[in-house]
Amino acid sequence: MEKENASNLVPSLSSVLNSADVPESIKELLEIGLDSILNEGLAKDIPVLNTITTAGKVILSVRDHIFIRKVAGFLKGLQEVLGEQRGDFLDKIEKDRKHRQYVGETLVMLLDKYDNLEKPELLAKLFAAYLKDGITYGEFMRYATSVDRAFIQDLKDLLRLYSGEHINSESIWLRLYPAGFSNLRVKTTYGGSVTVYLSNDDAVKFAQAILQDGFRKPNEIL
């Protein structure tokens, strides 16, 4: 995404989030396919994409294509979680213009940084959890940044663990330590010391925000 377009995307994303045409546009994306829409120049006919793409830009760069995919994934995830109540929840950020601007800038920067096309849907679920008061804005920011730092497969393994699957959790916490989802502890033994990595509260709250009703508490995982 070009730097000169970044500032324009902030109000555009805010208007897209509140637009009544989001569900219909997502339906079109799924039915027609994003590749066909972009390759055939149909983006201008779909309000969501027309808002995001640069006015008058005939040929989109590879980075533009990728960013549009990220935004589409984010909107799809948000719609799946909030459904027709999306507008009601979004009123939470619309009341404060400065906060709305800050949130818009944050979403644009996060989406631009993500290195995997599955991460935007995780961001959408975290954002929905914030809108529904499941997590604070500070927690939303922390977990969204953790998603950026983590390898997507490690995040999937974390969610599999808290979905009740039996997998090697020790290696998961080692890999997710740089993302802030585990704590390091040094245990003293007769032969010296051993470093272990254990899940923390942020890992639990992140999984709860993403999985919702599918979340299982650690003591429920046999």
What's the arrangement of strands in the largest beta sheet? Answer: 1-2
Q: How far apart lie the N and C ends?
A: 45 Å
Helix and strand run: HHHHHHHHHHHEEH
Could you tell me the strand content as a percent range?
Answer: 5-15%
What is the 3D shape? globular
What would you report as the Rg, rounded to the nearest angstrom? 19 Å
Specify the number of helices. Answer: 12
Which structural class matches the secondary elements? Answer: mainly alpha
List the helices and strands and how they pair.
Elements: H1 3-18, H2 22-32, H3 34-39, H4 47-52, H5 62-82, H6 86-94, H7 97-113, H8 119-131, H9 137-149, H10 152-161, H11 169-175, E1 182-189, E2 192-199, H12 201-211
Antiparallel strand pairs: 1-2
Helix pairs in contact: 1-7, 2-5, 5-8, 8-9, 10-11
Question: Could you describe the 3D structure shown?
Answer:
This protein is mainly α. It has 2 domains: 3-149, no CATH class; 153-220, no CATH class. Helix content is 63%, strand content 7%. The chain has 12 helices and 2 strands, in the order H-H-H-H-H-H-H-H-H-H-H-E-E-H. It has helices at residues 3-18, 22-32, 34-39, 47-52, 62-82, 86-94, 97-113, 119-131, 137-149, 152-161, 169-175, 201-211, and strands at 182-189, 192-199. It has a two-stranded antiparallel sheet with strand order 1-2. Helix 1 crosses helix 7 (97-113), helix 5 crosses helix 8 and helix 10 runs antiparallel to helix 11. The radius of gyration is 19 Å and the shape is globular. The relative contact order is 0.09. Mean pLDDT is 77; it is low at 2-8.
